[in-house]
Structure formats: C-alpha cells, structure tokens
C-alpha cells in the first residue's frame, strides 16, 4: 500500500526531543549542513514525515549521502554527524568490526 499525505504524522520527535513538523525542517536551499539540521532530516524520515526519496529531492542529496547520515546517527547519535569526527568514528567502527 502506498503512503499518502493523509497517512503521514503531523509531526515527529526531533533529535533534541522537540516536536518537528514539515514547517520546522531545514529550508530547501540549505547549504550549510550542521549536525542538528542533518539529524532533523534523519528524524523526519525515520518518523515518516518524509520519505527517503522526498528528503533526497528536497535537499538535493544522493541516496548514499542520506544513508551515511542515518548510519552515523544509528551508530554514534548526533555526534556521529560531525564532519570533523568522521575519521575518528570510522576507525573506531573498523577496529570493532575486525575479525581477529
């Protein structure tokens, strides 16, 4: 069954526990992606406010880029979205996933 506008929630819980609606999401022309904005888009998709395709179209993201945001949030929370920490987190997870 396809999801329709009527089946979508009016709002979802944002990354900081606040209520997010479509109007609260980052602007379509956002070019500076701070961790809070990335986390809001991930929360919107995870909560059903947007589909992955809608998020990618709305923010001109590739599927791989959005998926990397989701993985980062799943593994390390909002801090995983920090661009300056990507190498540190990558090493941490590669080390954990190594087979002895």
Which properties best describe this structure?
100 residues; Arc Repressor Mutant, subunit A; two-stranded antiparallel ribbon; elongated
Mean pLDDT: 87
Count helical runs: 4
Task: Count up the domains.
Answer: 1
H and E string: EEHHHH
- Work out the radius of gyration: 15 Å
CATH architecture assignment: Orthogonal Bundle
The CATH topology is Arc Repressor Mutant, subunit A
End-to-end separation in angstroms reads 45 Å
**Strand-residue proportion:** under 5%
Class derived from helix and strand content: mainly alpha
User: Could you describe the largest sheet, including whether it forms a barrel?
Assistant: 2 strands, antiparallel
Instruction: Show unreliable segments.
Output: none
- What CATH first level would be assigned? Mainly Alpha
Order of strands, widest sheet: 1-2
Count of beta strands: 2
The percentage helix is: 40-55%
Find the CATH superfamily. Winged helix-like DNA-binding domain superfamily/Winged helix DNA-binding domain
The coarse overall form would be elongated
């Amino acid at each position: 069954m396809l999801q329709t506008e009527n089946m979508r929630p009016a709002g979802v819980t944002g990354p900081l526990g606040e209520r997010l609606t479509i109007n609260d999401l980052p602007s379509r022309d956002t070019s500076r992606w701070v961790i809070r904005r990335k986390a809001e888009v991930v929360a919107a998709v995870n909560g059903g406010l947007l589909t992955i395709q809608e998020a990618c179209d709305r923010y001109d993201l590739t599927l791989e880029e959005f998926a990397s945001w989701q993985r980062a949030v799943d593994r390390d929370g909002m801090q995983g979205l920090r661009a300056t920490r990507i190498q540190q987190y990558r090493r941490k997870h590669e080390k954990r996933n190594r087979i002895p």
